[in-house]
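The instructor's notes for this session suggest beginning with a concrete chain rather than abstract definitions. Hand out the sequence below and ask the class to guess, before any prediction is shown, which regions might be ordered.
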Amino acid sequence: MNKNTFKTVKLTKGEVHVYDFGKIKLHAYKTNDFLADEVFIFEKNNVCVVLEPPCFYDNISELTQYLSDKAVAGIIVSYHGAGASFLPDAPKYSTENAVEYSKAGGGKALIDNFASAFGALFDNSVIHIDNIIGAGKVNIGGVDFIITLTHDAFDLEIPEINAVYTHMLGHDCHSIVAGAEHADAIITQLKNYIGRGVGFILTSHYTAEDLKDAQTKIEYLETLKSVAAECKTAEEFKEKIKKLYGEYGGENYLEMTASMFFKN
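After discussion, reveal the predicted structure:
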C-alpha cells in the first residue's frame, strides 16, 4: 500500500479513513465521540466485517448510513460490548471471556459509568453474541483473523494486511494501565510487534499507528513505571506525569491509571 491508496471520507460527525490494500479495504471510522472511539471495517469482495461497534446513538446512525450499500457479514465484539442498536440483525462474534467482561466484568462497569456520564446519548445496551469463537484462526466474510485471548477479551491479527488490533496504544495520549505488571505486559506485546515488523497497529481509541508509535509508547510506559516507583500517592503521580506529558490527551485514562497504580 502506498500513500495514493489512502483517502478520507468526511461525515457529519466523524470521518472514515479508507486504506486500499488491493484485495482488502480497511475503513477506519473516527467517531469523534467523547471516548475517541474508532471502529474498523474490513471489506473484501464487497462484503464487510466490523470490528468494535460504535456506542453513541449519533455515531450508530451515521455509520449505519455509511454501510447502507454494503453487505455486512458480521460484527466482532472484543473490548467494546455496548451499542446493541447498531446493525441488530448482523451476526455478532466474540469469545467467552469477552462476553463475561461486557456482561459482568470490568467492561460492564465501564458501560455503567459511561451511561451515567452521557445519559441518553449513549447506548448502554450490551450486545448479544450469536457466535462464540476461541483462540486461533477464524474466517468471517472471507477475511482471516487470528484471535489471541487477553485477560479481559482478545486481540486480533489480520495477516492479509499485516495488521494487528489491540485495545489501546495512542502514541501521544494516555492509556489505561493497571499497574507495573500490566505495563510490562504491554511493553512485551509492543516489542513483539516491532520484532515481527507489523505494518499497522489498530486500536479502539486512535487512528492507525505504526512501529515508531509502538516505540514511543514503550518509552512512555517505562516512564510511568519509574515515576510510580518514586511517588507515594496517586495525586503526586498524576501531577508528575502531567508535567512530563502536558500535551497528551486522554486525561480521564490517566486518572484511571493512577487509581490502579495506587489502589491502597
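Then share the key points. DSSP finds seven helices and 14 strands in the chain. The mean pLDDT is 93.
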